[in-house]
Write a structure and sequence with these properties.
This protein has 229 residues and is α/β, with parallel strands linked by helices. It contains 7 helices and 8 strands, in the order βαβαβαβαβααβαββ. An 8-stranded mixed β-sheet has the order 3-2-1-4-5-6-7-8, sandwiched between helices. Helix 1 packs across helix 7.
């Protein structure tokens, strides 16, 4: 049984990723900042839950300790937790965005590494964004060119770079970042009309979360394959 932890998974893409991986036979832990919401989401689909706030070291360490005690290992880690702010650019907002979208990846990864090393096929997927791609935001033909998301874009560039650097420093573990596509979720409300369903975007995450032992590492990918950044 593949043991999977997904951060920020009580709703949106994270929740749909959990549901799809459960259907594939994974034991899925929904990590949620609000324990009650996490438990409710997990109960709805037959998953398990852990209280996990990616901005709090004690919370992160407690969540991984609970999974260690119950499972003894972790096979798949999905960094899904993230926040999106608009055109507010100031110090406090920058600290909050980077703490969640980038530093949170470091906190959770470092706590998870001992468990991942016990897996026969350890995999880490970071839900990043092409809004953090230098190539995309400088290309007038891309929608990212016009996005007013200074801090979000910068934090996602950091998230992708962390993914690449972890892939280099941890060669026994696959690390890949994913652009899941513009999705209609609570987080993206107000940043454009439409967007596809969380289930459609989750399928892109699931593909990278279920790679075989010979799968790629250190990449940013979307549904079409490797993405320039």
């Amino acid at each position: 049984m593949t043991v999977t932890l997904i951060t920020g998974a009580n709703k949106g893409i994270g929740f749909e990723t959990a549901r799809q991986l459960l259907e594939l036979g994974h034991t899925v832990y929904i990590g949620a900042r609000d324990a009650e919401r996490g438990e409710k989401a997990a109960a709805a689909i037959g998953a398990r839950s852990v209280q996990l706030d990616v901005t709090d070291d004690a919370s992160v360490n407690g969540a991984l300790a609970a999974i260690d005690a119950a499972e003894g290992r972790l096979d798949v880690l999905v960094h899904n937790a993230g926040i999106l702010t608009g055109d507010v650019v100031d110090g406090p907002t920058a600290l909050r965005v980077f703490d969640t979208n980038a530093v949170g990846i470091v906190r959770v990864t470092e706590a998870a590494l001992p468990l991942l090393r016990r897996s026969a096929n350890p995999t880490v997927v970071t839900v990043s964004s092409s809004a953090g791609s230098f190539w995309a935001v400088n290309n007038p033909d891309r929608p990212e060119f016009h996005l007013p998301t200074t801090l979000y874009s910068a934090s996602k560039a950091a998230a992708t770079m962390l993914t690449v650097q972890y892939a280099k420093s941890q060669p026994g573990i696959r690390f890949n970042a994913v652009e899941p596509g513009f999705t209609a979720t609570d987080m993206t409300a107000g940043f454009g009309d439409g967007g596809r369903s969380p289930a459609e975007s989750a399928a892109v995450v699931v593909r990278l979360a279920t790679l075989g032992v010979d799968g790629p590492t250190g990449t940013l990918q979307d549904e079409a394959g490797e993405l320039r950044w």
